[in-house]
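BUG: 3D viewer hangs when loading the predicted structure for this chain

Environment: internal workstation, default settings.
Expected: structure renders.
Actual: progress bar stalls at 90%.

Input used:
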Amino acid sequence: MTERPVPPKYKSRAKAPAERPRTGAPRAIADLMPDIGRAAFRKFGFVQSSIVTRWAEIVGSHYAGISVPESIRFPVGQKAGGTLQLTVMSGHAPMIQHMLPDIVERVNRFFGYAAVSKVAMRQGEVQPMRAERRPPPRNLKPIPVELGDSLRDIGDPELRAVLESLAQGLANSSGLPKIN
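Structure tokens produced before the viewer hung:
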């Protein structure tokens, strides 16, 4: 017995699968980004992405200039006793080899537990990470003394707060504004 083809006018009457109703409210992309980054770093062997961004703080600027972490591989089912994979600038491997116990200690101190027990090195090109240079937040620089004394005599707290903010802005400025 052979099947007859269904005419096109009858195909449109077939029921489409019901759409699943949405659950939850829309989320801001900023809320999703840490999860996306965490998944990417875990895929490539990093438990915490901060070991990459804070490598200079962990091992010091000299060693951070000649080495960079690639990944941390843990034994199956464990989160301790892993192997840190480092890329070391060519010619500096003997010096880093000598400093391995200190590097393991510093990385474990950073994690707060014995996350790394071994370090595997490979020689390669290391691109030194440039520290992001930002001016300090405005509230960290104090108001100049000559401006601060005269502001204390103002009785209205709202006016005093506005004038203190203006004085702090003047103290933090580095000259006339530049127009591009």
